[in-house]
Design goal:
The structure is a homodimer of 213-residue chains.
Chain A lengths: L7 H15 L6 H8 L13 H14 L11 H18 L1 H9 L8 H13 L4 H24 L23 H5 L1 H5 L3 H22 L3
Chain A binds a DNA duplex (30 and 30 nucleotides) through loops.
Protein name (chains A, B): TetR/AcrR family transcriptional regulator C-terminal domain-containing protein
InterPro entries (chains A, B): Homeodomain-like_sf, HTH-type_TetR-like_transc_reg, HTH_TetR, Repressor_TetR_C, Tet_transcr_reg_TetR, Tet_transcr_reg_TetR-rel_C_sf
Pfam families (chains A, B): TetR_C_1 (PF02909), TetR_N (PF00440)
Chain lengths: 213, 213
DNA sequence: AGCGTCGCACGTACGGTGTACGTCCGTCAA
DNA sequence: TTGACGGACGTACACCGTACGTGCGACGCT
């Protein structure tokens, strides 16, 4: 009867679908089983626990990153491309992003981006310790940016929800904040992301130029 | 009998204590009530729901930031100080950090840091749009950094857990990663935080110098 | 062909969760 | 004294993750 025979990948896919449709809070083993038209306990023949399933979700999402790396390009362009690849999957799986970030994974899915980035930085002339430091800095910025971007859409938000309810800010307690409410309310996520990215790249380039080459 | 008469602050404090002692997963209304020596449903006379309680936890933690702002100092020093203030509370409430980050709050507790930062940046000569952009960039970096720092300690970690099990990395698939395992395994969080912070400050300073003053 | 084994789907059951609702009691206003 | 009211609490319900047992179909071996 079941054309597809209930496998771990099918379960993970159902979980990702459910998270994207109804948010991470809606995830339950019973719900996933129902979506698959299957008994609850059947899931445990393929997944040891709910926590492991969420780990698998994170790994699966992360493994869908598409790197289009040009080895001949400038290292700054390669860094840009890799950073944008992260943002792209966060855009593709917005509700899953929090899940991915909140569980640190020790699998090979998260290792490939690290390898690529380290290779790029080493190729640009950074020594090992520098490459690791720079990589960590970029990751911190990217993770923080993506969290802001998807955090703005906790539930499906039809209206652009500002970072602060625009009416509630007391102008005498928070003069700057209230005078900048228009700027704070609007947020072009892509432009913001690119802005910080360029800042970091520029800073790294300056430091690289100062030392040695 | 109860010397203290069960108030919302006492409930929030108990929740924070519990999170720091046993992690966010251990939080349940029954558990908090038990810790307070109180019936479960009594909590609902002061807190409308568990979600609201966690929001209150986030707000409470955030409101404990101690800013020691010197209006006469250089704007770079003031930015440094404000960034470190965030890191300090994340250090003080490591297990709560994920809770704070994962729920975006629209209360005044999160507004005061924003006001301070905007005032600092405006004072340094940035116009409104620039100040907001720069602030968002710093927040993204800080949030990402703190998540890495506390993510390394999901449960109480007696040993320094490396970002990747040092034995499992295939040297032919991941040559850079495996050759840099010592650097990847060790992480001086304060040094890493300061490194990225300096990079960002330097980049912002350069951009500010390029335009106008 | 017959038989044993094994993998996997599934039902049941248990302890735990958030919280709606009703009850009771101590305190204060009139 | 009495009335109202706020808060503490018990009970109850729907839902959760998952340990355990049962049954069934496919397959390997003799």
């Amino acid at each position: 009867m079941p054309a597809e025979p209930l496998s771990r990948p099918r379960i993970v896919a159902a979980a990702i679908d459910l998270i994207e449709r109804e948010g991470a809070d809606a995830v339950s083993m019973r719900r996933i089983a129902a979506d698959l038209g299957v008994g609850v306990m059947s899931l445990y023949n393929h997944v040891p626990s709910k926590a492991a399933l969420l780990d698998a979700v994170a790994e699966s999402v992360l493994s869908e990153i598409e790197f289009t790396d040009d080895p001949d390009a400038d290292w700054t362009d390669r860094v840009r491309m890799q950073a944008r690849a992260f943002r792209q999957i966060a855009h593709h799986y917005p509700r899953c992003t929090m899940v991915v970030v909140s569980r640190q994974l020790r699998s090979t899915a998260g290792l490939l981006p690290v390898e690529r980035a380290l290779a790029t930085l080493r190729g640009a002339g950074f020594d090992g310790a520098e490459a690791v430091r720079v990589l960590r800095m970029f990751i911190a910025y990217i993770v923080g940016s993506l969290l802001r971007e998807v955090g703005v859409t906790p539930t499906f938000a039809p209206v652009h929800r500002s970072e602060v309810d625009t009416a509630k800010v007391d102008p005498v307690l928070f003069p700057e904040t209230s005078s900048l409410l228009p700027e704070l309310a609007a947020c072009d996520h892509e432009a913001e992301f690119e802005f910080g990215l360029e800042m970091l790249i520029q800073a790294v380039a300056v430091q690289r130029g100062r030392r040695g080459r």
